[in-house]
Amino acid sequence: MLRLDDTMAIVVDIQERMLPAICNHEELEKNCATLVKGLKVLNIPLVITQQYTKGLGMTTPAILEAANTQDYHEKVAFSVLREENTKAAVKEQNRKNVLVIGIEAHICVLQTCMDLKEQGYHPYLVVDCIGSRKKSNKKMAIKRAIQEGIKITSYESLLFELMERADVEVFRTISKLIK
To answer: Has domain 4-178 been given CATH number 3.40.630.30?
Structure first.
């Protein structure tokens, strides 16, 4: 079960030069931005990564704006946890539940989820906030994640799970975001 005080998120490589090549990239970016805004409302910490920024560009403006930051962690390893700086940033949050979103689903996202699980975290793959260039690769990533024992969720489901109740202060704000 996701709880506010034990959950964080990793935004994996949603970058300007890569995103346009991703299947259904406009919907993916919208879903990710909505989720990130909701997580900010709920005060869930985020770690944003960029794969080889020089070649793939910055995180998209929509994501940075939603996160209200320009901060990111540079990486060249596919898994976020295979880089010391990003591994330390995740560990620093001291949270066991880790929401994983981003691109590409079958490479960096999947490897990050598997490494998180192997290192004792509880990764949650947010299936409507991940993407690959080919639909078949995204499908395979989800199947593989399930085989590896990684929890699967959607952004709307997890936001409501984190809120727990309709009578909390942030309910209306979150409800407006997802409409």
So the answer is: no
pTM given for the model? 0.96
Residue 13 among the catalytic residues: yes
- Residue 10 near residue 45, CB atoms below 8 Å: no
Return phi, psi of residue 107, to 5°: -120, -90
Active site residue 30: no
Look up residue 178 and give its two tokens: 């997802």
Q: Is 179 helix (H, G, I), strand (E, B) or coil?
A: coil
The vertex-40 CA angle with 121 and 27, nearest 5°, equals 85
Domain ranges of the chain: 4-178
In this model, does residue 67 exceed pLDDT 90? Answer: yes
Backbone angles phi, psi at 46, to 5 degrees: -120, 145
Catalytic residue (one of 13, 32, 87, 113): 13
Active-site position among 37, 87, 108, 113: 108
Percent of the chain's residues with pLDDT above 90: 97
Of 37, 75, 87, 138, catalytic: 75
